[in-house]
Amino acid sequence: MKSLYKQILINRESKKKMLAVLLDPDRCQGKLMSSTIAALKLSVPDFVFVGGSYVNSPIDSFIELLKEEVQIPVVLFPGNASQFSPKADALLFLSLISGRNPEFLIGQHVTSALAIKQSGIEVISTGYILIDGGKVSAVEYMSHTRSIPREKKEIVLATAIAGELSGQHIIYLEAGSGALQPVPKELVNYVTSRLSIPVIVGGGIKTTQNLEDCFDAGADIAVVGNAFEENPNLITEFVNFTEEYNRKPNFSFI
Ligand code: 1GP
After folding, report:
1. Nearest CA to ligand 1 atom 4
2. For residue 177, with 0-12 CB atoms within 10 Å meaning exposed, 13-18 middle and 19 or more buried, which class applies?
3. Distant-in-sequence, close-in-space partners of 1: CB < 8 Å, separation ≥ 6
4. By CB neighbour count within 10 A (0-12 exposed, 13-18 middle, 19+ buried), where does 144 fall?
5. What homologous superfamily is domain 4-247 in, according to CATH?
């Protein structure tokens, strides 16, 4: 299979924005799973991300089921080493660089490294930066780290640049699952305009206006989870919006 990261770089070069649908295997079950799959068959996003801060359900069978139904690249977005699955197409190898907990900077990586290497899965090293989204997020709680205050743009930028300089391939600006407020567009733009690597933005994106803000501000990939769990039909609206956005002439935020 073609490298997803290469495709991300190609899309970034041509300013093509991407949408990722985040599925939490614990929550995406039964009726919700069926309606999500139905929506994904109708409207195809760029990626399906699979994972969560805490996941109890088996990941392998979840991905197998998904892949039987839809042909969308599946990217692991794991909360810890136990969520690794060789069934996915790629793995976001996350380092929680906004935190100072060695377990999420190197510990979980060592735990999963051999299995990942042996699987031959595509690995995308990702500098994961947690930004205050208006409430304590699950990742904040589970990782024993604190988010960066949303008004501290210099700290967010310095963290992102530290990630880039230390070899991360992507930076992920995360407001937290179900955030009350997404990452502010000014902050997204402040970071994206100063980085040379792709940027993913997620957490609290609930409307196409949020999505537009995120793309206008320079994000390459937007991730949406909760909004689609509440209403899987929104997948179609968001996919159509992204396609429409990519048809328009390029827009510059500044
Ligand atoms: C969370 O960025 C993702 O890790 C998506 O967040 O569920 O709030 O869309 P939401």
Report:
1. 177
2. buried
3. 89, 122
4. exposed
5. FMN-linked oxidoreductases (3.20.20.390)
CB 211 near ligand 1, within 6 Å: no
Among protein residues, the one whose CA lies closest to atom 5 of ligand 1? 203
Is residue 205 within 8 A of residue 214, CB to CB? The reply is: yes
Provide the residue ranges of all domains of the chain, joining segments of one domain with +.
4-247
Render pLDDT for 17-65 as a digit per residue (tens, 0 to 9): 999 999 999 999 999 999 999 999 999 999 999 999 999 999 999 999 9
CB of 51 closer than 6 angstroms to any ligand 1 atom: no
Assess whether the C-beta atom of 182 lies below 6 angstroms from ligand 1.
no
CB 53 near ligand 1, within 6 Å: no
Ligand 1 touching residue 224 (CB < 6 A): yes
* Per-residue pLDDT reduced to its tens digit, 85-137: 999 999 999 999 999 999 999 999 999 999 999 999 999 999 999 999 999 99
